[in-house]
Amino acid sequence: MSEIIRLSQRGFAVFVGSAPVFFPALCVGAAGGILAVANVVPQECVRIQTLFEEKKFDHARDSQGRLTPLANAVTAKYGIGGLKMAMDLAGYFGGNPRSPLKRPDKNIEEELKRHLLRLKG
Predict the structure, then answer these.
(1) Are 77 and 64 in contact (CB under 8 A)?
(2) Is-contact 84 94, C-beta < 8 A?
(3) Is the pLDDT of residue 110 over 80?
(4) Closest CA to 40 of 70, 64, 63, 7
(5) Rounded to 5 degrees, what are φ and ψ at 119?
(6) Which of 77, 74, 79 is closest to 113 using CA atoms?
(7) What is the 3-state secondary structure (H, E, C) of 30-84?
(8) Element holding 3 (H helix, E strand)
(9) What is the DSSP letter of 104?
(10) Which residues contact 47 (CB under 8 A, 6 or more apart)?
């Protein structure tokens, strides 16, 4: 990421696409992020960006630490089905993934609920 930013023309905005590295990417010059987990907890993603812009780096880093477990769950661990389930749990419409993808089972739903509760607490 830092190399891409370094090699980009001045004024070219580089965005990160991975929520677990959102805050570090901002630190090396990313302009923002296009993050799957923002479909579930947009306010948390905005909070990290805002805290970074206000130079409240310790708070931004703490928020990143709370966001990362959910971000990993809804992308790398459970994929589209997990993302859609987490959206439903957060009060948005995720719905069911298109075939051949499946909706995760009940134990994964409980795990996603725990991640969401940790973000609120």
Answers:
(1) no
(2) yes
(3) yes
(4) 70
(5) -70, -35
(6) 74
(7) CCEECCHHHHCCHHHHHHHHHHHHCCCHHHHHHHHHHHHHHHHHHHHHCHHHHHH
(8) helix 2-7
(9) -
(10) 63
Sequence-ordered list of residues with C-beta below 8 angstroms from that of 19, at least 6 positions apart, any chain: 33, 35, 36, 37, 38, 45, 67, 68, 71, 75
pLDDT category at 121 given cuts 50, 70, 90 is low
CA atoms 94, 50, 30, 78: torsion sign: negative
| CA proximity to 41, closest of 116, 118, 121 | 116
Question: What interhelical angle do 106-120 and 57-72 show, nearest 10?
Answer: 170
| Token reading at 72 | 């990993």
- Position 117 scores a pLDDT of 94
Q: How far apart are CA 44 and CA 100, in angstroms?
A: 31
Amino acid at 42: P
| Helix 106-120 / helix 79-89 crossing angle, nearest 10 deg | 60
Q: Report phi then psi at 50, rounded to 5.
A: -65, -45
If you search the block for the tokens 């023309």, which residue do you land on? 9
